[in-house]
């Protein structure tokens, strides 16, 4: 029996060896087939390009043609995987790496073929030369700007640090155009656009992006704020679209102990898998902390908010974040071009991925869908609170985001708020400090008079519905039966619309004050004037002043036990559970 057993064992070893060789051969064949397909398709692409380039009836831009082909190839993946040709490298670095360039420290916009200054930044050449928002730029270094677009003008404004630049400007209250001779400076837009103390002796930090030195800037702001012995810290990440992941980790480390996992990334290639943890002693591990987010907070913003929520270190206030849980890496290509590729998904400490859109499983028409509620999973924070993946970061305290009325949007969109602020600045030498500045009723009435001969037509939601009713009724040949009632309703809507400037006075005053304050106090003016209208900020202050509520939220007591419960998924689960019970 022993010999038989040994014989059988040898036989199976041979079979196993043969199977292993067969598998290796199969793997090799598959690998070779992949290489053949790649080679074949590249050959086809090159051949098509060659024939088109030689034979097409008109001259073609070969660089543009290739970029179109590459863009089309990447278009089926996700919007973050992109090819950057040599001609766009500098713009790419400016957008994704740092916001540093040589210029005068202003932004511009084009309107009706003319170019105007839209913003001036404190401490830079344009502000020092007393250039104002609303000034029209006629010429740059004697080059006429008539008909030029924003990109063309921006290129003329930018240049090497220390280089001279001459502007010919026109101002409404100045009869003749005038020249300004400036020296370009290094323009480095800060990542932290504002920090300071707000109501309740709370420290406030507004972080706009996660580019180079973001963590250093937040650290400097926090060190300065701590000198005022704040009762809490508010980190504002609203409308922050993200950036460099490592900067997010460093910022979390300011508030979280050493050797704590912040985020991990997992992809197809094991070498790309990595876990990022805190590496140093935190600067502020104890003070109450609130993070403000909204639907435009994405990527690195969600890493900060999600990890601080998972670690029960901060209270998140605002609206559900965007839901971008994808990690990109850039790869250098020949001729100073590069490709940015999504290499992994990131996961915050509870283990959840907050990616909201499923780019892999598209509809037949190519459109992208959100991760289905039925596929969303539950995870636990450090203290056992329930959080969920697949849908961004849901705040601990949800604040409904209010939308400006149609009239306000029209006044902003048609630049009438901007234009009136220019008029106001020309007729008022100074205003109160931003936190105290407020337009009087007389000022607002003056603005209403200013609008008397201006075109700010807009269509309200009710008017759109009424117009749709007329269209459908006309199609069905029923409009004649309801025309009397339709005309009465239309007249009532027009009457109501005439009162919009008074009905929505509060929010129109808000945007007016914001724009006017920026003319005197620049970016600081915008923030400080708007504090009194900021509902999320007010809620952050109120929450941090209530120590019992802070403890209740972070411990997950009562309504705070479950955060952002996906209703449809839970309803589906209950239905499935009920079916299961019935079967028993």
The chain-level structural class is: alpha+beta
Mean pLDDT: 88
Report the β-strand fraction as a percent range: 15-25%
Level of helix content? 40-55%
Q: How is the biggest beta sheet arranged? A: 6 strands, antiparallel
Q: Regions with pLDDT < 50 over 5+ consecutive residues?
A: 1-25, 568-584
Shape: globular
Give the strand tally: 23
Distance between the termini: 51 Å
Number of helices: 18
CA-atom Rg in angstroms = 30 Å
Describe this structure in words.
There is one protein chain. The protein has 584 residues and is an alpha+beta fold. Helices cover 43% and strands 19% of the residues. It is built from 18 helices and 23 strands. The strands form six sheets. Strands 3, 4, 5, 6, 7 and 8 form a six-stranded antiparallel beta sheet that branches. A six-stranded mixed beta sheet has the order 10-11-12-15-16-23, with helices on both faces. Strands 1, 13, 14, 17 and 18 form a five-stranded antiparallel beta sheet that branches. Strand 11 (202-207), helix 6 (214-226) and strand 12 (232-236) form a beta-alpha-beta unit. Helix 10 (416-427) packs across helix 15 (505-530) and helix 12 packs antiparallel against helix 13. The longest helix has 54 residues, at 2-55. The protein is globular.
